[in-house]
From TrEMBL:
<protein>
    <submittedName>
        <fullName>Putative esterase</fullName>
    </submittedName>
</protein>
<dbReference type="InterPro" id="IPR050583">
    <property type="entry name" value="Mycobacterial_A85_antigen"/>
</dbReference>
<dbReference type="InterPro" id="IPR000801">
    <property type="entry name" value="Esterase-like"/>
</dbReference>
<keyword id="KW-1133">Transmembrane helix</keyword>
<feature type="transmembrane region" description="Helical">
    <location>
        <begin position="39"/>
        <end position="66"/>
    </location>
</feature>
<dbReference type="InterPro" id="IPR029058">
    <property type="entry name" value="AB_hydrolase_fold"/>
</dbReference>
<feature type="transmembrane region" description="Helical">
    <location>
        <begin position="6"/>
        <end position="27"/>
    </location>
</feature>
<dbReference type="Pfam" id="PF00756">
    <property type="entry name" value="Esterase"/>
</dbReference>
<keyword id="KW-0812">Transmembrane</keyword>
<dbReference type="GO" id="GO:0016747">
    <property type="term" value="F:acyltransferase activity, transferring groups other than amino-acyl groups"/>
</dbReference>
<keyword id="KW-0472">Membrane</keyword>
Length: 376
């Protein structure tokens, strides 16, 4: 039974209801004022509370997809930071590639029925040649991609990175970004663009912050080189940096901004949705820089603006003035920006660090991205 399945959530809910009813019925019938009586009543209350907490926790997890599977949950519960090289194919890899391309069940939920009218959503796994890393992904192709007179046309690409722990199904299914992209396109607010929704946590449970870890996974290289190469091999995409952008929420926003700033030869724009701009170090990351302050500084976007030449890219800082803890950090980033780096802002008066706030910021982020990308 899957961790996020309706059957599992329903089972825990039924057990919680049974526990409540049993507690109400049994409590008056437990006799005795001694240790045994008190222990029995206490045990009954604890069991009831545990059943309720489990049901609520499973429901919240199923909604936000903090843990997408039992393996994900159990690995994160180990308390260990694991270093891995990602998924390796049994056969030699000659190039970065998409291992498979299939139409997911989410397509019908999003109303994507006819490719040349609605576009098409594909589910895939991206495997990198340089790094040996793999990541689950969804790719949305706009309706224009399938029109006969566009058979030789290339399209701009937006790589959308999840936050941590993240799952691209949240971006595609819960936040319905392909559907939003189609709505914005039909309304004439954006140009036709290819969206690749990619899981940024490629070596779970470790949060690599899209970093090339010394002696560990080369995640920055994966997203800066392997992912674009795999998409170029599979789709008609922009041939130069002018048609490539990145965006993401939370840590995905940090990754998007970092990749654009450190790889301005690959990307021209990045949208940071409720993202942060300093190099993070906590229990989920471990030491990403092998104790090197210099390496950590190079991954700190505030430090880079203070100590490195600004890169020729455009960045959108999308956030909430009230309710977003990292807003002062975002303001600091904006204040430090200078040409040729161009930084624009999209601020909500009030919000939070949650899917609802992200949802309010996505439309403006898509429109801004559309204005920055062009196929040359």
């Amino acid at each position: 039974m899957q961790l996020t399945s309706t059957a599992f959530i329903s089972l825990l809910t039924v057990l919680a209801v049974v526990a409540i009813v049993a507690t109400v019925w049994l409590m008056p019938r437990i006799n005795g004022r001694g240790v045994r009586g008190h222990a029995a009543r206490l045990g009954l209350l604890v069991a009831c509370q545990l059943a309720i907490v489990l049901a609520l926790s499973a429901g919240v997890n199923a909604y936000f997809l903090f843990y997408a599977s039992w393996d994900d949950l159990l690995a994160s519960g180990s308390g260990q930071v694991e270093v891995g090289k990602g998924k390796q194919g049994s056969a030699p890899v000659s190039r970065s590639e998409l291992l498979s391309r299939s139409a997911p069940e989410l397509s019908s939920q999003l109303g994507l029925k006819t490719p040349d009218r609605d576009g098409r959503l594909e589910q895939t796994t991206i495997r990198g040649l340089r790094t040996g890393l793999s990541s689950e992904a969804f790719v949305y192709l706009p309706p224009d991609y399938f029109k006969a007179d566009n058979a030789k046309r290339n399209f701009p690409v937006v790589v959308v990175l999840t936050g941590y722990p993240g799952d691209p199904k949240v971006l595609v299914g819960r936040q319905e970004l392909p559907k939003l992209a189609l709505e914005e396109l039909r309304a004439g607010r954006t140009q036709p663009m290819i969206y690749a929704f990619v899981q940024s946590t490629v070596v779970p449970p470790r949060d690599t912050e899209c970093t090339d870890v010394p002696g560990g996974p080369q995640v920055e290289t994966f997203f800066a080189q392997d992912v674009p190469d795999a998409l170029r091999a599979a789709y008609r995409v922009a041939p130069t940096r002018d048609g490539w952008g990145l965006m993401g929420p939370s840590s995905g926003g940090y990754c998007a901004a970092k990749l654009a700033m450190r790889h301005s030869d690959k990307f021209t724009a990045a949208g940071s949705v409720s993202g942060y701009f300093k190099a993070l170090k906590d229990a989920t990351t471990g030491d990403l820089w092998a104790g090197s302050k210099a390496l950590r500084n190079e991954n700190d976007l505030i430090w880079r603006l203070e100590n490195r030449p600004p890169p020729p890219v455009s960045i959108l800082v999308a956030s909430a003035r009230k309710g977003e803890k990292k807003f002062p950090e975002a303001e600091r980033f904006v204040a430090l920006a200078k040409p040729p780096l161009q930084v624009d802002t999209a601020y909500l008066a009030e919000g939070g660090h949650n899917l609802k706030t992200f949802g309010r910021l996505w439309p403006e982020t898509m429109r801004w991205m559309s204005s920055k990308l062009q196929v040359k």
